[in-house]
């Protein structure tokens, strides 16, 4: 009886492995490969030849200084560019991006940024003083040897009196540096459970766009970083300036003096679209054309929306002239990874920026016809907040469930998503694991048949061919 039960369990185990092996191998391989591309550095990270003026902006000692930190391994594109443009539109601060070293660093999705200053250059510019504000985005996890310089630098700035703004999962950077111990703080809703376990000395708060704990402000998910930056502007420059900044960047959800209401979020059944996209769904190759004057939030709305969490496309930054860096609306330097000659190999070509839609449409359309590539698309040609336009483009070209999931992970207000139009649930990609499981089972069955045929032909009467097989006891008696 026990032998029969063991035999049944063994066969069931073999069937289960046969069904799961192929989907797991394919799914994990595709997911791992895509995740690596999110912060994949450029082939050459050195400072480009000064074909244009790459010097950082001038310093006005009469203004407060705000720095946005990026690590040598990069940072989240929305966490960096959302607060950066929010500070920049005030025109009332010295604003720099800083990194341990001044070399190209990848923002999410492959947008290569040249930081304004290294840590040493910032210290020289400020004559050893700390900046007034340090904004800290999410950074890719790295070895302690690479995070230690960032943590040590942050601790020094906080100790010297800098107001620290932790954007989204940038709170993890602050927690690892010990800057949140004993404080109230928040972070991305999806990661709060993990952060609570890893950093129990922090009083983590949920369902809030930001937490102001005096010398440290932390925010929820990506777009809540704009609210956190506006809170900093309130404290530095007053509510009137903050309201003007919110209007300038198109953020209609600003609430003076306190964080705007934010419903609590949890991972639900519909959110499994992320797993489908990450593992089994084909992804379009999307070129993003960098042009001078594109808004920082406009750039973030494409590189951030399609890549992280949604896993809905592979993006590559292209230049009108691949050899030349470009400057964003408020002076950030980005370096393309290729030129427009790559167009024929792409599925789509997006051109971020309302300004680009006016200035470059004729030239880009003509170039696309010449090269035989996809027709350029201008997602910001219509009026509206950049992320709203990007999410609507995602709903139309990918599907509505992916757009809703990405809005949830960005903490984009649901009120802004009414009337999304596009395809529904991708059932074909969802069923692929079942198909792969069936193929795995059929392959295992075929292998079993081949193995059995290769064994000696033992019939029910105990013979192999014409030779009789006798039990061992009978052979011994003979």
Automatic annotation (TrEMBL):
TM helices/strands, residue ranges: 425-451
Protein's UniProt keywords contain Membrane: yes
Keyword terms of this UniProt record: Membrane, Transmembrane, Transmembrane helix
Record keyword Calcium present: no
Pfam families recorded: DJ-1_PfpI
Disordered, as annotated region: 459-478
SUPFAM superfamilies per the UniProt record, alphabetical: Class I glutamine amidotransferase-like
Superkingdom of source: Bacteria
Sequence ranges assigned to domain DJ-1/PfpI in this UniProt record: 66-234
The protein's name in its UniProt record: DJ-1/PfpI domain-containing protein
Organism the protein comes from: Paractinoplanes deccanensis
């Amino acid at each position: 009886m026990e032998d029969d039960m063991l035999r049944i369990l063994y066969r069931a185990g073999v069937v289960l492995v046969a069904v799961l092996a192929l989907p797991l191998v394919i799914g994990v391989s595709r997911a791992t490969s895509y995740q690596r591309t999110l912060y994949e550095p450029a082939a050459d990270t050195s400072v480009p030849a000064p074909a244009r003026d790459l010097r950082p902006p001038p310093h006005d000692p009469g203004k407060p200084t705000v720095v946005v930190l990026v690590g040598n391994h990069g940072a989240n594109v929305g966490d960096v560019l959302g607060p950066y443009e929010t500070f920049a539109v005030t025109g009332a601060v010295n604003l720099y991006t800083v990194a341990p070293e001044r070399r190209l660093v990848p923002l999410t999705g492959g947008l290569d940024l040249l930081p304004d200053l290294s840590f040493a250059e910032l210290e020289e510019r400020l004559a050893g003083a700390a900046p007034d504000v340090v904004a800290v985005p999410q950074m890719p996890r790295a070895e302690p040897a690479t995070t230690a310089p960032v943590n040590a630098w942050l601790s020094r700035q906080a100790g010297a009196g800098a107001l620290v703004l932790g954007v989204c999962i940038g709170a993890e950077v602050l927690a690892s540096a010990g800057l949140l111990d004993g404080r109230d703080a928040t972070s991305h809703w999806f990661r709060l459970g993990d952060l609570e376990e890893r950093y129990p000395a922090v009083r983590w708060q949920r369902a809030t766009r930001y937490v102001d704990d005096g010398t440290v402000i932390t925010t929820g998910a990506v777009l809540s970083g704009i609210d956190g930056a506006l809170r900093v502007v309130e404290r530095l420059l007053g509510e009137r300036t903050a309201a003007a900044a919110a209007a300038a960047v198109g953020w209609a959800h600003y609430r003076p003096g306190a964080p705007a209401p934010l419903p609590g979020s949890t991972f639900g059944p519909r959110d499994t679209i992320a797993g489908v996209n990450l593992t089994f769904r084909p992804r379009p190759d999307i070129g993003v054309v960098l042009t001078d004057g594109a808004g920082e939030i406009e750039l973030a709305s494409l590189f951030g929306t399609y890549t992280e969490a949604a896993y809905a496309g592979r993006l590559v930054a292209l230049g009108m002239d691949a050899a030349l860096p470009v400057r964003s609306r408020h002076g950030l330097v980005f370096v393309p990874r290729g030129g427009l000659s790559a167009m024929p190999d792409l599925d789509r070509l997006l051109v971020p920026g309302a300004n680009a839609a006016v200035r470059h449409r004729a030239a880009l359309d003509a170039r696309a016809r010449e090269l035989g590539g996809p027709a350029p698309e201008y997602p910001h040609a219509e009026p509206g907040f950049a992320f709203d336009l990007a999410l609507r483009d995602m709903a139309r070209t990918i599907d509505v469930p992916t757009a809703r999931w990405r809005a949830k992970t960005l903490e984009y207000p649901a009120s802004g998503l009414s009337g999304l139009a596009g395809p529904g649930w991708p059932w074909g990609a969802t069923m692929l694991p079942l198909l792969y499981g069936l193929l795995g089972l059929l392959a295992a069955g075929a292998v079993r048949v081949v193995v059995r045929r290769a064994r000696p032909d033992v019939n029910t009467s105990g013979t192999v061919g014409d030779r009789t097989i006798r039990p061992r006891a009978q052979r011994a008696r003979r």
